Amino acid sequence: MLKYETLAQGIDLANFHASEDLQQVRDRVFDVISKIESCSSVSFWISKEKHKFTERSAVGAYKFFGVHIARYIGEVASQTLSKKVVVVFDKALVRQDQNAFLAAIKPQLATLGLPYYLYFHNVSKDFNGQIADYLAWARFVSLERNEHRPLAILPNHLKEVLEIRETN
């Protein structure tokens, strides 16, 4: 509905993308997201300055991320009655980064003893992917630019954040 409201205002949007949308659009999207009660969110972040990855490209970061997100998934799965694990990651990653992520996450997920499915999809046109983009952007601008307004709008169940460290 929000998409068509913005189109009716003369704003040509194929999909929502926080870093590219006008401030008035972001305000409306955050307002809608803040009222969603049927989901939760956890944002993960890595301070690149604190970590010396062996690879100079993003590959090292994706390996590191894969291991740690799998550990988190394992913790959540052990606390719930999960019967399977489904991970949908943005297809924007280049093949080399996808492979690094998969090489790190698969062995960790295999130890859970649950069926797991890993997908790389174009999430820019998926409603859930657009919500995730906005939540990640809100966290990014709070960490990078000290801009806390987007996070302040969100309820607590959409604000959890974990810094990935060597000891996590």
Task: Please explain how this structure is put together.
It is built from six helices and four strands. Helices cover 47% and strands 12% of the residues. The termini are far apart. By secondary structure, the protein is of the alpha/beta class. Helix 3 (59-79) packs parallel to helix 4. It has one domain (15-163). It is globular and about 50 Å long. It has a two-stranded parallel sheet with strand order 1-4. A two-stranded parallel sheet has the order 2-3.
Task: Write a concise keyword list for the protein shown above.
two-stranded parallel ribbon; alpha/beta; 47% helix; 4 strands; 168 residues; 12% strand; 6 helices; single chain
- The class by helix and strand makeup works out as alpha/beta
Radius of gyration: 17 Å
What about the largest sheet?
2 strands, parallel
Tally of alpha and pi helices: 6
Shape: globular
β-sheet strand percentage:
5-15%
Head-to-tail CA distance between termini? 40 Å
Placed side by side, the strands forming the largest sheet appear as 1-4
Number of strands: 4
- How many domains? The number is 1
Q: How are helices and strands ordered from N to C? A: HHEHEHEHHE
Q: Uncertain segments of ≥5 residues (pLDDT<50)?
A: none
Mean pLDDT: 84
State the helicity in percent bands: 40-55%
